[in-house]
Amino acid sequence: MKNIPVLLMLCLVLTVPTNTRADVQQPPSQAAPSWPCFHGPNGNFSATECGLTLVDDLRDAKLLWKSQEPTPPGAAQSPRYGNPGWHGISLGKFNPLKIPLADGGEVTSGGGVPLPGGGASSLLVADGRVYVSYFVPSGDLLDEAERAKREIGPGMWVPDYWRVAADDVVVCVDAARGKTLWKQVFKDNGLNWSDHKSIITNHTGAVFGGRVYVIGSTCRVYCLDDATGKLVWESDLGAEHTKLEQIKAKGLAGKKAFGGINRGHCNGCTFAAGVLVCPDFQGGLIGLDGVTGRKLWQVPKCLAHHATPTRWVHAGGESVLCGNVEGKVRCLDPLTGKERWTLETGRQETSLSIAGDVLLLNASNETMGPGDEKLVGRASGWKITSGGAKNLWEHTGDERVGFVSGGMSGLPVWKDRAFVRNKSGTTMLDVNSGKVLARFDGAKTDQESHGYCAEGRFFHEPDSQHGSIHDVLMLGTTADTFKPMGKPWNTPHYDATGYEMPISHAVVAGFLYLRGADGIYCWDLRKPTR
């Protein structure tokens, strides 16, 4: 593993954007390879290209490390499943698994009692560091009803699963070796979300310009120094924070753990022009000054349930793109929240994806027929500037391939190729013309699918919610290589997954960083050189 820090340093030769004041418009800076927010550095689930050659079969990927710091799964315990109800892995199935390391050693995944669920925030990677945020149940007060169930019937009582309060936690680990660099615990600031289908399903933060920003379990917002973990400022998301604090107070008074908001909180945040752009978890966005945490603006009802706002870097500076289910797509000034332009188009369900200055959208809200409410989207491409959007193409008739946002997380893109996924397969499109370049029927979505791209490869996960990352397909990104490379891959360790919204995966300089059920795992996807 001695060559890992050297490679990371070689890939970090570009400058990292500095943290800018929100009242000064700064020109965009070209970022070093990183995964700074939910949908990666390019606003489309693609990694920064480093000119690397990846393995031809994911089963040849090598595990480099498991993090020194244990971290919890995403979706976890639930009163529905009993004994004690850990989603996806019962106590009898969380047996220790020995996994070989690339250097000849081995690590253990699983064993003992699984940790309580801590929310499904995705990993962030920047400047040779990996960041993860979650909550840990804390305090003396437990859910009295759950305690009573275990006292009168069979099963194992695990008090930590059913505490009412929680700590908010942020951990930073060395991206080269998995060693803990710092850990920040916000004692008793949080709330224990205790049902697996309603447990926090995103809350992914952002890391930019020497700061890491995270959203806590009661919608507090923390800004930390990314190198030391020192708290720079703390703010909150207004009405949603107030609501969750009231729920916490009621739960403490009544000894009742919070069952969660049904499959809610599916939105992460981004950072543009010195402003942290956060979901308000009521369908809108809030802009916070990245330097001070001061609230700058709020735009209501502009964000779909499964969407994270998209940072768009362009000739005129930086903008924020968002869409909603009513079909309105907005380009916002990140400093003021004011609309630069709007489009009235099809239903947008997930994060908007861009390919440079081309925005990919659903074009219509057609139905299958009379009385059938199932929507059929038509893909469309738009050339965008800071002053407006011009339609480049729109699918009609036989060209129709379905919603561009299949799979909940959003549309993966590699350079000028986009990958439309649905239950019938995946179609590769040219983003500039909309032309269908290739199709593979075997890359089907099932439940909450996830897709991402790196170094000329497209990765397809059929299902990222049911306790494991499995049957991952890797395909090429040209018409003649758009077919599986190797066999489907199943991670040999226990995984952390969300429910309703998949956890996205950071790929930086050929290394794949995955949240596991008991820690962070780093996989080397690079093809060995002889």
Automatic annotation (TrEMBL):
Domain of life: Bacteria
Residue intervals of the Pyrrolo-quinoline quinone repeat domain: 167-353
RNA-binding among keywords: no
Residues in the signal sequence: 1-22
Annotated keywords: Signal
Record InterPro entries: PQQ_b-propeller_rpt, PQQ_rpt_dom, Quinoprotein_ADH-like_sf, WD40/YVTN_repeat-like_dom_sf
PANTHER family noted in UniProt: CELL SURFACE PROTEIN, OUTER MEMBRANE PROTEIN ASSEMBLY FACTOR BAMB
Protein name: Outer membrane biogenesis protein BamB
Lineage: Bacteria, Pseudomonadati, Planctomycetota, Planctomycetia, Pirellulales
